[in-house]
Amino acid sequence: MDDSGEQHSETNESGNLSETEVMKRILELCKENERGVTEKMLQGSMPSADPMLRANAINKLLKQTKLEIMKQGTQLLYRLKDQKQSNKGTDDEERIVYAIIEEAGNKGIWSRDIRMKSNLSLTLLNKVLKTMEGKKLIKSVKSVAASKKKLYMLYDIEPDVSITGGSWYSNQDFESEFVEILNQQCFRFLQEKLDAAKISADPISRINNSYVTSNDVWKFIKDLGISKIELSITDIESILETLVYDGRVEKHVVVRGARSCEDSSSSSSTVKMYRAIKPLVKSTGLMRMPCGLCPVMKDCREGGVISPSKCIYFKEWFES
Amino acid sequence: MSKNEIELCAKLLNEHFGAVVETVASHLMKEGSLPFKLILASVKQPILEVKKALKVLIYHQFVDVFVNSIGFFEYSVNIERILFIIRYPKYIYVAKLLYNDYGEHIIEELLKEGQLTMSSVIQRVVNRLKPALTEDEIRKVPKSIFDTFVKMAETRFIRRTADFSEKSVENQLKELDDEAETKQFEIPKVKLNLIEIEKDDSDTVSSKRIKLDTSQPDDGIYWAVNFARFHQYMRDLLVLDAIKTHYDDEKAVEIARIIFRLTETKMLPLAKVTPSVSKQDICNQALKESICSSSSEVDLYLRMFNDDVNYRFISKVEESAGGGMYAINIFKTIDKLLHFTITSIVESQFGSKTCRIFRLVLTKKYLQQKQIEDTAMIPSKDCKELLYLLFKEGFLKTMQFPKQPDYAPSRTCFVFTVDIPDLCRTLIQKCFCAVHNAIVRRTYETQQHKLLLERKVFIDAVIANLQQQNSGEDVQQQIEDLNQSFSTHDKELLGRIQKLTTKLELSECQVDETLFLMQTWVLMNFQ
């Protein structure tokens, strides 16, 4: 089941039932027949409903754990999930732990913190957590900040960006190669713009034409198709930011004016512009001789074990 | 003065002025200021030698003389002045750039002797040029040298040091401070006809004439190189260079040069910003020199400078009816250059990732470890490693912000920051060390092959002699034989030493470029 399908069904009423109504009907039907409802019975009760719509409704109910699905012979049987029954196994401990985890929200909570808050013993808590995980009430998530730490949160909650790490992480690993490639591609784009702007006649347009908005870079990266995941403009901006700190790009913020980009959805009235630059200093004189890079400079003195006259770095440097 | 500086000074003096001068200066550096008797006692050299060494040091302004409270003369070393020796090639280059060959020769003579009277400078330069010129040409030379000299004094590249013509030495020392600044550049009278211009072999007439009237009117008025002015010019060159790299546009550089030229006379030596120039003046000058085709083009460039908020090398300082006043932000440019230099040092020493972290802290000033990890987009494990590497090497410093007054580490915020003045001084010391090492290595290598090098010098001299005498067939044969006296191994060795010496000398100059930038920054930052 995907979101687009759901939206589609809600808009496409065409005299038929909407999804929520279908869901309601299914629940009613299940309540009437405690032993279960077959596909045929569903079809019979609402012949006007589209099978797709019905399937979607059932999927949704299953996800909400209001229904459970069983098999009888060759056909499927839907039955109302007994809330009381499902809570039958939950004792007081589970309820306490559940409350603690629920409180933590999408940030999750570390098992040790649960223990501190709940005052349960380690073995008991582990058992409770395991059973709750089995019931799909909670799930454990690994944080990027501390890979050994297991965080617990409610089953249907999407973990926070600070835990998953956002676009730059896959399975707790920082994708430094991916970042590196994006970094290079963004710079290439800016560099090309800079070269292209050189032909402009007057000095001001030469500079202005080499400026690129973050939106342009985002489009370029999207068209390039190097990213499997969807990157947001903020993601691209943080990549561009790394280029600024590499000293290869300068950033400029302008008020949205004539040069603004089309999308009016973002609320800010400023646009971030980027431009490739040449570093003012390429290599310094100090670094062009071995002493600049020498790791044992502190111990180097005339007459010592390490001395400029016997320095092997000098020797290598002469050969080069 | 640090240990590195003292060691470097000793090496420089030894290389250029010999061992006795070095020992005298080393003692003075160690002891601060000393009267002559004490120098003599500690140096343990013959009195004449010490006197001579001291004379050399005073002549070159390496040593200052002052009268102490009891009335004795005391001598103290001026270390900064000695360190300028590394920069001598640069000064000569600048002089050549601005005043052609005559300027070059004048500065070379002044640097070689420390200080000279105007007439002797002209005499020495004429002597230098004599062999290469014909009789007719040489007659015009003294006047041209004189003109160049006057020009250099006007632009303050050279200055008067002491005037022994009228007063006694004691008066000189007392009145040195009271002397009006303008008098430093006043040109004395010189009788150009006294300059010997005849070739050596036919100077019987002139020597007679000199005997008749030997004294030049400027006797006792000594001139020396004005290093501060040279540094100012070199600093301006750095600024122009930065503008050139940044805008990649010759016209932009030319406009900046115009502003420098227009403000040259009004400029204070250590001002952070040039005096402001009106747009009108810049336009007029640019059109006169046909750098730009119209005043609107100049206007475009000026606007471009002013709009470039990240760099702002040149900015509008005043809004007035005539289109505003513009000035070059010298210190800002030097500051930018320094930032790039330091980051480039970090980059070549630790790699680009580390450089990113460093620049991040440099721009944002104060950052916590977590913030650095997030913004730099480097995996947190690597980031920590690089961050602490920078910390260990002294490029980053931490600051503590305790949440409670007990400074307990668990309740304290640690932020990383860059202490630029401190880092700059460390790097300056490193530069001194590097130059010192290069000199040591160079002398070591030449010492190792001393015999071979001496033989080479001797044989070269013999060959030159032979060539001067005649150029017959047998002479060619003799030269060939002399050259054969070096084996292939020797020749290879000589080539190697030659290459290595040039490489080391070049890197000494290059390190000095870094050094100069940093020293200028420190000087301007703490004035």
Description:
The complex is a heterodimer of chains A (320) and B (527). Chain A is α+β, with helices and mostly antiparallel strands. Chain A folds into four domains: 81 residues, Arc Repressor Mutant, subunit A, CATH 1.10.10.10; 78 residues, Arc Repressor Mutant, subunit A, CATH 1.10.10.10; 102 residues, Winged helix-like DNA-binding domain superfamily/Winged helix DNA-binding domain (Arc Repressor Mutant, subunit A); 29 residues, no CATH class. Chain A is 47% helix and 14% strand. In chain A, the strands form four sheets. Chain A has a three-stranded antiparallel beta sheet with strand order 1-3-2. Chain A has a three-stranded antiparallel beta sheet with strand order 4-6-5. In chain A, a hairpin with a 7-residue loop joins strand 5 and strand 6. The radius of gyration of chain A is 31 Å and the shape is elongated. With 527 residues, chain B is mainly alpha-helical. A three-stranded antiparallel beta sheet of chain B has the order 1-3-2. In chain B, helix 1 packs antiparallel against helix 2, helix 13 packs across helix 14 and helix 16 crosses helix 18. At the A-B interface, helix 10, helix 11, helix 13, strand 10 and helix 14 of A face helix 11, helix 14, helix 15, helix 16 and helix 19 of B. Chain A: It comes from Dinothrombium tinctorium. Chain A: One of its GO terms (biological process) is transcription by RNA polymerase III. Chain A: One of its GO terms (cellular component) is RNA polymerase III complex. Chain A: Belongs to the eukaryotic RPC34/RPC39 RNA polymerase subunit family.
